[in-house]
Each structure stands twice: as C-alpha cells, then as structure tokens.
Specification:
Shape: globular
Order of helices and strands: HHHHHHHHHHHHHHHHHHHHH
Number of helices: 21
Structural class: mainly alpha
Radius of gyration: 23 Å
Number of strands: 0
Oligomer: single chain
Distance between the termini: 57 Å
Helix content: over 70%
Largest sheet: none
C-alpha cells in the first residue's frame, strides 16, 4: 500500500476528487435528483473519515463510497416517504451490480451530461450544471468561466437542481434525434473543463491538470457518438491543437513561454495532423460554428511550424467571424490583440477601451495583460504599469505571474 493510501483521510480525499463526477452520475442515473446524489456522496465521504481509520482503507475506495452513498439515498427516501415511483428508482440502484466497474462509468457520465442539457432547463445554466455536477467545479470556478459572480452562479445552480427534482427530468440518454439540440451545452462544458486543465501545463495541481485529458477523452466520445455534427469535430480539433503545444509552454526551469516565442519543434505533430484532419471533415459539412472557427484560428497559429511566421491577417479575419457568431467580450479581447499585429497597437487599444465599461472584465486577467502590452507599445508607461499591476494581482499561475512581473520590471527601468 502506498503512503497516500495508508493515510485514510488522504485516500478518501483522493477518491472523492478523482471520481466525484463519475459517482454523482451513477447515483443520479435513476434517482433524478442531483442534489440528493451530491448530499449522499458528501455523507459517504464523512463516513469514510470515521470508519477507515478503524477498518483500514478499502481496496477500492470509489466502490466503497458508491455503496455507502447508495445506502444513504435509500435511507433518506424511506425517511421522507418519497412517492413510490421515485423509491422504485432508488431501489433499482442497489441492484446494478456492475455499475461500479470503471469501464461503464465514462459513458454513463456522458449520458448525464446530455440529461443536464435538457430543454426544460434554461440554456444559460445547462453547461454550468454539467461543470458542477459531473466535473467537480465549484461556484467560483464556474463563475470565472462565464464571467458571473460566484454567489449569483450558486443561486442559479440551486434553482436548476430544484427544477430537475420537481419536474422529474429523467437521467438517461435521450433519443438520438434529441441529442443535437442539447449538444451546444455539452460541448461548452467539455471545453471549459479542458481549458481549466490546460491552464496547468506543469501539472502542479493533479485534479486540475487531469481535466485536459478528460476533456479530450469526452470530446472523442462525443465525436464518435455524433460523427455527423461538425461542431463536435471542431471542438475535438480545437482541443488537440492546443494540447499539441503543451510541451512548449514552459521552459526547462518552469518559466512561462508565450505562444509567439514557443519552439515549434516541440509541438506534437501527430496531434496537429489529427486536428487538421478533423477540421477538414467538419468543413466539408458546410455548417460553420464557434468551435470550428476557434480550431481554424489555432490551425493558423500551427502553420508557423511550416512557414516560420504567423499569418495575423488570417487570424484577425477569423476573429471577426467568431465575434459575429458569439458577441463574446473574451473574443473581442483576442480580436483586438490580433488587430494590433495587423493595424497597430493604437487601433487595438481603441477596441479595448470600448470594452472598459463591461463590468465582467474588471477581474478578468487577460484583459489587463493585453491592455498592459498595448499601452507599453504605444508608449503610455503609466497606464502600462497600472494594467500590469492589475494583471499580476489577478493571475493565479506562478509562472505567468513571474512573466508579467518581469515585463513590469523591464518597463520600470526603460
């Protein structure tokens, strides 16, 4: 037994962190109550902290947590005298002998993702519900994804779960003809999970860094399930293009390396080729969308490995298309930074100035980092110092923070 497993508390925490979404998916698969499944899992975790020091860590911690959580669901249903139909669903949970096998869990989790994207739920909450329920995001992390205050996001999630329980929304794979109308929310959640994992290229936080691999895995499942959906292919292409650059994003000593300075020889050619093939398949379907366009932008960056230079004109044009599709302030920031390379930093700074009244960007680090760079390039050192200070204060990645601090230090002595 490893040292980590010898410590009951660490073993319980590791099991819960590693398998939270999978366990909730199994618990809610028939009970139709996400909140109850989460409560039962929390009770099982508390029980583990009390029982494992006496009995020792079980060989399969996840299976132990699942079994205890199921018993909590049954007991809770009996105490509350839940209506017969719901009780039958909960009893059936106990009869699913093979459900704790690892091979069954990923598909069941994907099914629940599509259930969380049920058309009876508000479209604005579907992806957030998937992120919390199945991928273990808290309200703070979800709020940062959607540029919403954590308290507001928490309230929205509570209301969504109440509606699921009250309406009896079934947690099952919907008919295949119903999947396309739910696809956008599932893709958004998968990409958000991937992006959070991709933000930790050094693997400093195991659970966060694992999300990138989970995102790619889920993307492959969706593309296999729905090969005729170009946006499913586009999302997988986008994630593979980004993942291909993982090895070039940090130096040997852990320093952050900006995309423009990365050694293209370190990019994963096999992943790039796979991404390009997926993007070509999607383009042949002539149904353009957000993820195909984002993948095309990354494809344009990837072309630098062949040409030795970045085609900023093409990238700026693609951001124009993406902006027209989404109206996203995040896209607007990236579009402005691309415009700086084609029309100059002053033009780009005007575009960022137009976003300054958007309160959602007040705590969005890339806005301030981009602004700092543009202000420095137009010679406004005072504004650049202020923007660098804000960006540094908002940055959580130590390597990126050091990069920004170095830029600020160089600005101060210039």
């Amino acid at each position: 037994m490893t040292a980590a497993l010898a410590d009951p508390r660490r073993a319980a925490e590791a099991a819960a962190r590693r398998s939270y979404g999978k366990l909730v998916a199994l618990l809610a698969a028939r009970g139709r109550d996400i909140a109850a499944a989460e409560d039962a899992l929390a009770e099982a975790f508390a029980a583990a902290l009390g029982d494992w020091p006496k009995s020792g860590v079980p060989d399969n911690p996840e299976a132990w947590l699942l079994a205890v959580a199921r018993r909590r669901l049954i007991d809770g249903a009996r105490r509350r005298k839940t209506r017969d139909e719901a009780s039958d669903h909960l009893v059936l949970l106990m009869q699913e002998a093979g459900d704790d096998q690892e091979a069954d869990i990923p598909d069941r989790r994907l099914w629940l993702m599509f259930a969380c994207a049920h058309p009876a739920l508000d479209p604005s909450i579907r992806s957030a519900l998937i992120l919390q329920t199945l991928l273990g995001f808290d309200a703070v992390a979800i709020g940062s994804v959607f540029l919403v205050q954590p308290a507001t996001m928490g309230q929205r999630l509570v209301r969504a779960k109440q509606k699921i329980a009250q309406a009896g929304i079934p947690f099952e794979l919907p008919p295949k003809e119903d999947l396309p109308e739910r696809l956008d929310a599932v893709l958004e959640a998968v990409y958000s999970a991937f992006a959070r994992g991709w933000s930790d290229p050094a693997g400093a936080h195991a659970r966060i860094s694992e999300l990138a691999a989970e995102g790619v895995w889920l993307g492959r499942l969706i593309a296999h399930l729905m090969p005729g959906e170009p946006e499913a292919l586009g999302l997988l292409a986008l994630m593979l293009h980004l993942e291909a650059r993982r090895g070039a994003r940090r130096s040997a000593d852990g320093a952050y390396i900006a995309l423009s300075a990365q050694d293209t020889a370190l990019w994963d050619q096999a992943l790039i080729d796979e991404a390009e093939a997926l993007l070509y398949r999607a383009a042949k379907m002539t149904r353009p969308g957000r993820y195909q366009t984002e993948a095309a932008i990354q494809s344009a960056h990837a072309a630098r490995r062949l040409t030795g230079k970045t085609d900023w004109q093409a990238i700026a044009a693609l951001y124009d298309v993406l902006w027209a599709m989404t109206g996203s302030p995040v896209v607007a920031i990236n579009r402005a930074m691309a415009r700086a390379e084609t029309s100059g930093p002053a033009v780009a700074l005007v575009e960022l100035d137009a976003l300054a009244t958007d309160s959602r960007l007040a705590t969005y680090q890339p806005y301030w980092a981009g602004r700092a760079d543009l202000c420095q390039r137009v010679g406004d050192q005072a504004a650049a110092r202020d923007a660098y200070g804000r960006a540094i204060g908002l940055e959580h990645d130590p390597a990126v923070r050091r990069f920004l601090q170095d830029r600020l230090a160089k600005l101060a002595v210039s």
